[in-house]
Amino acid sequence: MNAVEIQRVQQRYGSMQVLHDLDLTLGEGEVLGLFGHNGAGKTTTMKLILGLLSASEGSVRVLGGAPGDAQVRRLLGYLPENVTFYPQLSGRETLSHFARLKGAEQRQVDQLLEQVGLAGAARRRVKTYSKGMRQRLGLAQALLGTPRLLLLDEPTVGLDPIATQALYQLIEQLRSQGTSIILCSHVLPGVERYIDRAAILANGRLQAVGDLPSLRAAAGLPTLIRASGLSQAQHWQARFSEAGHSASSSAEGLLEVAAHNGHKLGLLRQLLGEGQVADVEIQQPSLEDLYCYYMQRAESTAPAGES
Amino acid sequence: MNQIWNIARKELSDGLRNRWLLAISLLFAMLAAGIAWLGAAASGQVGFTSIPATIASLSSLATFLMPLIALLLAYDAIVGEEEGGTLLLLLTYPLSRAQILLGKFIGHGLILGLATLIGFGCAALAIAVLVADVELGMLVWAFARFMLSSTLLGLVFIALAYLLSSLVQEKSSAAGLALGVWFVFVLVFDLALLAILVLSEGRFNPELLPWLLLLNPTDVFRLINLAGFEGASSMVGVMALGSDLPVGNGLLWLCLLGWAGLALGLAFLAFRRREL
Questions:
Q1: How is chain B split into domains, by residue range?
Q2: pTM metric for this prediction
Q3: Which residue in B10, B84, B94 is closest to A102 by CB distance?
Q4: Cα B265-B266-B268 angle, rounded to 5 deg
Q5: Which residue intervals define the domain ABC transporter in the entry (chain A) (predicted)?
Q6: CA-CA distance, A149 to A51, in Å (whole number)?
């Protein structure tokens, strides 16, 4: 059973259509990255899954039930963007309150505070917390009741690099335990290692969805080969350019060549076989490159008035 | 039921934490004691006069104070929670909007009810202990009725505050509207009724006019407390109309309850329609 099934959803606010024909599924134990610009429809998609909105058309199923069902909500954890809490309560009181509402055991409160590194600040009022601490409290809140589906909206905002790493490790751990996760983020670098599939939304339309290799293949973006310590770098640049590859070189023996689909291994073979190379780096199109590619494609194909 | 209580206990503990309960209780106790002993100072009399006079003065005071405190306590219940960002989170938990609203209603109601019980209860206790040969049965009966009806009046205005809070988009608008509601029910309504009475010069159906009092919960509250005493001489102004009202005390209580139910029902409808 899929954790989330969104089928042919149209969502309108008055005369404004914010989602067009959205089809999206999330398998059990899968981590899906949901990416898009502001107003692309990410939050609306989240709200549909949470049952805060009902779809104008189409169907949404969550954990086998209707979104918003008390039973479904008990199995769901949500970290909203810019999460806020009651400022006058302490971290522990906050978590304790939400644990009661979730029907989670109170002993989980201290465990989670420990897990997100807030055990030392548990008795302090939330209004004295930094943004990063609030975010970690928000994460602990989302993990109450051991959810089977976790929705994380911009979870790394306000987190320092170490806390961000800890969050990603936690995501990996949860995935290995079978938790399905949707991760909305603007911060793309670093995310790609932790997601199984990426979905890119623009102007309320799903532009692409799939794992990174298939998105790379579909986009046809070149892989960058960077060779250093190369004698006759300029000669190699001319040779590759003549063959139709985009290449650049420097007097210090650095060569960069963009290899399109199917050419990567051939170019490497030539370089390593015939050239004197000190080092080679291969840079595949990153999630950021893919995002930019699909966004630009969406811009150029958007019907008038949508972009 | 459990979820309703979870919300209610949060509101109650907030009321304890931010000293609302303490402040209102102290205010009520001091005002009630002051009125009991100094209420007749204007007529040159110092000291406790009588239970009916004390209750009459307290009712007039509560008519002003109770709606104001209730509105202050609850005007930001919904819009404040949304502005603070916690409403979105709450609504993703396994509890319905009705449970949230009822939980808040019970929590705020408990704060107001406890403050009334502690504040006015202390004053009643002081009268019982300090005033010689006071009629204890009457004191208990009159104060119990006064405290219960005061709390009920407070509940009406708490529910009205939720209605406003569910309709507006900003906390400041809710505060402004709450003041407006207080103004209308506590000050303007009776003046308008008196104006109708005077300007119509008898053309207005005199049997209809007393019924109009039931359209204002603060008037119903005063009728409950003033009509409880034989030959209540304190029925002045628009309240004098109440003596023409052919309804029993039970119906007045029902009417106040109905007001609370109606306001809460409307608040729920507004909250249910509210989009996040």
A1: 3-273
A2: 0.88
A3: B94
A4: 65
A5: 4-228
A6: 14
CB-based contact A85 B86, cutoff 8 Å: yes
What ipTM did this prediction achieve?
Answer: 0.86
Distance CA(B94)–CA(A71), nearest Å, equals 7
Contact partners, residue B115, CB within 8 Å, separation at least 6: B20, B21, B24, B25, B28
Say whether residue A141 is in contact with chain B using an 8 A CB cutoff: yes
The distance from CA B65 to its chain's CA centroid, rounded to whole angstroms, is 8
Q: From chain A, pick out residues whose CB is under 8 angstroms from the CB of B84.
A: 84, 86-87
How far is A213 from A235, CA to CA, in rounded Å?
32
Instruction: State both tokens at A298.
Output: 């969406």
* Cβ proximity of A235 and A201 under 8 Å: no
Q: Say whether residue A56 is in contact with chain B using an 8 A CB cutoff.
A: no
Long-range CB pairs of B249-257, under 8 A, 24+ apart, other chains included: B249/B224, B252/B220, B252/B223, B252/B224, B252/B227, B253/B149, B253/B152, B253/B224, B255/B214, B255/B220, B256/B149, B256/B152, B256/B153, B256/B156, B256/B217, B256/B220, B256/B221, B256/B224, B257/B152
List the one residue out of A77, A233, A255 whose CA is nearest residue A153: A77
3-state secondary structure of B80: helix
A52, A84, A88 member nearest B91 (Cβ): A52
What SS3 state is found at B204?
Answer: coil
Query: Taking CA atoms, what residue in A is nearest to B97?
Result: A52
Residues of A in contact with B92 (CB under 8 A): 50-52, 73, 76, 78
Q: How far apart are CA A155 and CA A78, in angstroms?
A: 10
Residue pointed to by tokens 């973006």 = A221
Query: Which residue of chain B is at minimal alpha-carbon distance from A46?
Result: B92
* pLDDT digits (tens), chain A, 307 positions: 899 999 999 999 888 999 999 999 999 999 999 999 888 899 999 999 999 999 999 999 999 999 999 999 999 999 998 899 999 999 999 999 999 999 999 999 999 999 999 999 999 999 999 998 999 999 999 999 999 999 999 998 888 888 888 889 999 999 999 999 999 988 888 888 899 999 999 999 999 999 999 999 899 888 999 988 887 888 888 988 888 889 998 888 899 999 887 788 888 888 888 777 889 999 989 999 999 999 999 888 776 555 4
CA distances from A9 to A4, A43, A48, A84, A207 (A): 13, 14, 10, 30, 15
Name the residue facing B92 among A52, A88, A103 (closest C-beta): A52
Contact by Cβ (8 Å): A233, A275: no
Sole residue written with tokens 């918003």: A68
